[in-house]
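Job type: complex structure
Entries:
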Amino acid sequence: MSAIYILWLRELKRYTRSRSQMIASLGQPLLYLLVLGFGLGPVFKRAGAGNYLQFVAPGVIGMSVLFTSIFSGLGILWDRQFGFLKETLVAPVPRIEIMIGRTLGGATVAVMQGLLVTVVCLLAGFRPANFLAVPIALGFMVMIAVLFAALGMAIGSGLQDMQGFQLIMNFLVMPIYFLSGALFPLTGLPVALSYVTKADPLTYGIDGMRSALLGQSAFDPRLDFAVLAVVGCLLLALGAYRFKKIEV
Amino acid sequence: MIHVQNLVKSFGAFTAVNDVSFDVAEGEIFAFLGPNGAGKTTTIKMLTTLLQPTSGNIRLDGLDPLTHQNDARQRFGIVFQDPSLDSELTAKENMEIHGVLYHVPHKARKQRTEELLKLFELWDRRDEQVKKFSGGMKRRLEIARGFLHTPRILFLDEPTLGLDPQSRNQLWTHVKMLNETERVTVFLTTHYMDEADRVAHRIGVIDHGKLVAQGTPKEIKTSTGSETLEDAFLKLTGSTIRDESADPAAMMRQFSKMWGGGRR
């Protein structure tokens, strides 16, 4: 247990210590929020779909949680390159504990980043329809964070160097984001796209947050919850398995 | 303390370690020497449970590291060839993580961290991030960390690589002292023959995966009719140069040094 705690704490310390990183990673969400929020706003309104800034804010929050958590999982690659991974792998601690500590640490950091972006959204004019449902939105944020931290861990365990990194960014992380319905409503999509969005776990996370914060959603929030829970558990198991197989 | 019998490790058709046997007694300092690519690091990896042997037997303090992995790990400390510190954290935090991972009780952890950091002259800078440390300081911290859980065996894989003579000298003085006061067995590899001659009680020379000589520095010198250990080493292993192909991890580290990049 104490091993899980200390590795969790390590992730937190690394996060709070890299202030510049924290600020830098606000840049992208801000861009999406302000440029798309205000840029597409008029068109969105004319289409009778309401306020686009309100609509896109949960998507942008979800995006920052996705990015932070998946990169924290991939951080294992940095640890491999800069040596710290070996220190944990020869320690007399079951690997599963090391994996759990790291994953929870990464997920916690991602939730903190998500909360930071939430504050930015509030400053930009985003107003949740129902403040009482904010804890539910937070719950969905946590689920997104754990799920993608585990996915990052599963992928990071198999990566040997930085070359694979760009590949994952372009062919996994960005598609997960763009196909999640973070930026557009899921109703009335072409059939093919609608299937793809339904296969993306982030879709359910953002839909869950939207239902809590705005009271509007494409699916039943209970379905969102169930999908995230099942996929999250599967990815945790996969991450643990892949982490166990690491050889240095 | 360390018992190795008919140890073999093959990677496909290539046999990195070929039927190696040796014993290291308790409290001994054993230097494992060999040219690049001779099988030193592969042997250390097998001894420290990071790699599974193809065949052969290993006993660490009587334990088989394959079946009693965590018990065996608890009994040794290791300083790797490449750095393994978290450079975003402070010296003290690096020690603390190690202490927790090795189940050192809180009080003992604090006390021993202080003792070791003072011994290795890092106590004044304990709250500084490791990334601000010089190469020599990082090495000292890694060795101090390796001693934290009072291991019975300490593995040092080329610990003095890239250090100036002052740091090297000081490092070995400390290691020798701890070897005497705590009776810790030391298994080391190095390319500096003078170090091995000065520090080690016994030496094993490995080449092309095979152990080609074993004995005290004096025995090895006499048996080859050499003045210095360096001459003896060259006689035993020949003077052709071995080129190791750079592995991706080493290339990556070099890249990061060049650009100062990398988030971690």
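Summary: Chain B is about 40% helix and 20% strand. Residues 81 and 131 of chain B are 18 Å apart (CA to CA).
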